[in-house]
Amino acid sequence: METYLLDWFKILNDYAIAFSVLVNILISVLGIVPSFFITAVNIKFFGFENGLLISIIGEAFGAIVSFFLYRKGMKKLLNKKRIKNKYVTKLTKSKGIEAFFMIIALRILPFIPSGIVTLAGAISKVGIINYSVASTIGKIPSLVIEAYSIQQVLIWNWKGKAILCLFSLFIIWLIFSKRRSKHISNQLQ
Fold first, then answer.
1. pLDDT tens, position by position, 133-167
2. Cβ–Cβ < 8 Å for 121, 135
3. Residues 136 and 171 grouped into a single domain
4. Which end of the chain has the smaller Cβ count within 10 Å, N or C?
């Protein structure tokens, strides 16, 4: 996928930034596709600083467009009881400054999918301006970490190897802890 996008960036040259932002918007609207690959392509094609800035802009616009679309369409169809995370559920019921800071916090946390935060924000009482600002502020730290990690993996020095190793261990831990908690809950029933 990255090679395919890099080829498109090369073809579009002067329009590569707009294309990158459009891809980010599409990823955000879909809500289930991870965006790290477009961040990687942005860093490869534009360099670290410019690639990071373009990724931040793309993710910000993606979150805003998704919020608007979700609020218009999904709010009517969504059963609020499907959301199981207590913080995301709390966001759906919050408004004002409380919602603002919850969006920032949920965006910073790497284990809550972006699409879920956007959907929760869309069905909450938060306004689009507050959502847009909070979402962008919350995405910046995670994107900086993501971009730095990607850069280290791309140059593949000891830091990149350590990041990849830690990420792999984290994934393994998540899988085993989830299985363990399911096993324990099944035994308790």
1. 999 999 899 888 888 888 877 777 677 677 778 87
2. yes
3. no
4. C
